[in-house]
Design a protein that fits this description.
Low-confidence stretches: none
Helix content: 40-55%
Distance between the termini: 33 Å
Radius of gyration: 17 Å
Order of helices and strands: HHEHEHEEH
Number of domains: 1
Strand content: 5-15%
Number of strands: 4
Amino acid sequence: MLISDEAKKIIRNQTTQLSRNAEDEIEQSTQVDPTEREQLIKSRRGHGTFRINVERIDKHCRVTKTTAKELLIASHIKPWKRFDDIEKIYGNNGLLLAPHIDKLFDAGFISFEQDGTILISPRLDYNVLRQWRINENLNVGSFSDK
């Protein structure tokens, strides 16, 4: 599916506005102390840097091959809370995923071996894989050891 340049522009503008609104909301919150407020804002901005770094490595969703980056999610492979500030934005700790694939990944229904072979949780209803046309023998390409 092709997305027009105008649609991409609208999505980009809305995403930027949502980001600004979220930062404004954090800034104005009286239920968050100033130190935590600053950390939340830095975290939001850091995710933007993380995404840019992931996009330097991945050009599409490894599962669906979707290339419309404004529709993809930059997902951490290892939870970001386990890393220091530099590691949190490291592109090799991420991959671009379509939203429905990210949901499966984030919930632990799917994962990947180092060589890219898909791992499927026994908790996942295999009908979901068939409905979303996800091959249970999929290999998405190897991941960096870095």
